[in-house]
Every structure is written in structure tokens, then in C-alpha cells.
Amino acid sequence: MASDISNEARAAMRQSDTFDLHIDTFIPMRLWGYNVTKEHGLGLLRGRFGGHLDLPRMKAAGLDSAMWSVTTNPFRSSKGRQKTVEKNFVALREKLEQGGVVIANNYESYMAAKRNGNHAALLSIQGGNALDALTTDGTLPDPDLIRVTLVHLTDSKVGKSSSPFQLRKQPEALTDVGRNLVKRLNDERVFVDLAHISKQGFWQALEVHDKTQPFLVTHTGVDGVKKHWRNLDDKQIRAVAASGGTIGIIFSSLFLRPKGRKNTAEIVVDHMQHIIDVVGEDFVSLGSDYDGAITPPKGLRSGDSYPLLVQIMLERGWKEGRIEKVLGGNFLRCLRELRG
User: Fold this and answer.
1) What domains are defined for the chain?
2) DSSP state, residue 83
3) Is residue 247 within 8 Å of 285, Cβ to Cβ?
4) CB 124 within 8 A of CB 105
5) Is residue 106 packed enough to be buried (19+ CB in 10 Å), middle (13-18) or exposed (0-12)?
6) How far is CA 271 from the centre of its chain?
7) How many CB atoms are located within 10 Å of the residue 171 CB?
8) Dihedral (Cα; 244, 10, 225, 215), 10-degree rounding
9) What is the mean pLDDT of the chain?
10) pLDDT tens digits for 184-242?
């Protein structure tokens, strides 16, 4: 891969703020003690389903910051999920601090981390049912929590997932629990993330969402390139842009590659280009979902591969300003607007 990346592409990475809006690397850290401070290879499965990221590869790629997600176990009780997510944030902080990572919760703390040469971790929850037991006046499970994905792959007390594969289906697209959660996150100025939610739930969440705040869809593809239950349609893309938010493009071939298209990193940029064609270049970002049981296209199966996307952008004639926006500028704008 390294021989395919020009000095110009590497320079563009160095001069940009580069964010990944969604990584799931805490899953292998939690489940089998994966040491994120050590550089790993792709493993026996060669980057299929996992083995994507560690701190040395992030540094080699020039990834300044990522949203590190704690994913909810839907089969626990409400109180059990709340206690577990609190414990998981303590464990995640401990492991990251061992690797010299700084927890950031706004623009200034991110910039301070970058000036000191540290990776900045933004803490997030995937599966808002982790907060089922949270009362309206209770505290969030971590003071630096910056984003909550309302639902994940299963229907929950919050609402319906976009996934059609459900054991027990939630009849309501967004429940009263979900509506209250959106309002609570708005009050706390925590990003509401509408990745994974059903289309009806998406629109119902926007009915109660604070119209003055941007919202996110952190890891997704778009129907305009490949129609899929996991992806956004053009109307949804326009709604994200209207809020001033941004959309992170996932690196999962399953959701990105249309029939007949080669399974290469080009397909990630195809989805980015579609968003640009629909609403312009100010509303698209990176949202890999690395280590989230995905299989990325060839060339993107290791976390030091981000510069390959920049190489593709340059080959397509993208200008420096657009590349900087997509790598991190668009999300930084959202971060400054919501959190200061």
C-alpha cells in the first residue's frame, strides 16, 4: 500500500485535522485484552471483521482523533447496562491513558492534545438503551461523553433499528424513552447520532431535536450509490446538512459496494462524492467503523491506510480545501458549534 501513496497525499494528511467519527476498537480491548498500545498485523483473517486499529498504526496514518465507542449489550437489564457502561468508560480511559491518549470533549481540548502530539479520544456510546435507567436529573455515565448513537443493531426501548433482522420487534419507531433521550442529550450538548436508526425513527427524532444544534450520522453509506437498509437516502442527507451536521462514511464493503463495482477503496470516495453532489462538500466526513465486525475494501483493511483515501481524492481532482474538510474540518465545525 505504501508505494501507492504519493508524498502529496501524505503531506495533505499532515496538514489536515483528521478525525474518524466511529471506531469500535474497545470491543477487542474489552473482550480479549487486545493491547491497543502495540502494533499488530491484520491477524489470521487478514483484516476481515477486525484487527484494524492500534495506536501505532493510527499515528503512522496521521489520525489525530477518533470517537471511541462503548457498545451496549442489549441483553442486560436497564440497570445492568447503566452500571456496565460506567465501568467500561473507566476501563477505556485507563487503557487509553496508558498509551498516551488524551480525552477531549471540545475544540480547545482537542487542539491542546494535537499541539502536544497526542491522539485525542472522543468518548461515545453506541446504543442509547445504555441510558434506559438514567432519570431526567441523573448524571451521564462519563462527564466527557460527546456522542450517543440512539439505537444499534437491535430494537430497544429507545426505538427501532434499521436492521430488518430482529428477534423482538419494537412497534414504535421512536418511543417516549427515545424522545426524552434526544431532549436530554440536547440539554447536555451531546451529539445525537442517527446511524442505525430506522428511517421513520430518523424523522421522528428530528421532530424533537433542538433545531439550533447539529446532529450526526457517524458511520453509514448512501442509497445513491448502493441502496441498502443501512444507508441514508438523499432526503436524509439534506436533513443532516440543514442542521449543520455531518455524515461519516463507513468502510464496510457490505454497505458500500454496488453490484459490478470492484471492491477497492474507491467505493468509499464514491459515497463521499454522492453526498457532495447532493449537498456540497461541507457535510461529509470519515466514519470507518474499524474493529466493528466489518470487512473493509482491499487497501483499507489496516488502520494505517487512511492516506490511501487522500491519494484517491487527489487523483479525482479534489482540491486541498475539500480534502481538509472531509478529513476533519467538517466535524471540527460541528464540534465548535455544539461544544465550543
Assistant:
1) 2-339 (3.20.20.140)
2) H
3) yes
4) no
5) middle
6) 15
7) 7
8) -20
9) 94
10) 999 999 999 999 999 999 999 999 999 999 999 999 999 999 999 999 999 999 999 99
Q: Which alpha helices (H) appear in 220-299, and where do they start and end?
A: 234-243, 253-256, 266-279
Give dist(CA 296, CA 204) in Å, integer. 31
CB contact at 8 A, 295 and 257: no
- Looking at residue 262, the DSSP 8-state letter turns out to be -
Show the cell assigned to 286: 470519515
Which of 284, 298, 302 lies closest to 61 in space, CA to CA?
302
CA 52, CA 243: separation in Å to the nearest integer? 32
**With contact defined as beta carbons under 8 Å apart, do 104 and 121 qualify?**
yes
216 bridge partner residues: 193, 246
Residues 86-139 have pLDDT tens digits of 999 999 999 999 999 999 999 999 999 999 999 999 999 999 999 987 655 668
Alpha-carbon distance of 164 to 221, in angstroms, equals 17
Q: What is the dihedral of CA 259, 250, 236, 267, to 10 degrees?
A: -40
Q: pTM here?
A: 0.96
CB-based contacts of 32, cutoff 8 Å, min separation 6:
none
Q: Where are the alpha helices (DSSP H) in the chain?
A: 7-15, 26-32, 55-61, 78-98, 107-115, 176-188, 199-208, 234-243, 253-256, 266-279, 306-315, 320-324, 330-339
Q: 137 with 163: CB under 8 angstroms?
A: no
Q: Are the C-beta atoms of 78 and 133 separated by less than 8 Å?
A: yes
Q: Are the C-beta atoms of 63 and 124 separated by less than 8 Å?
A: no
Between CA 81 and CA 46 the distance in angstroms is 32
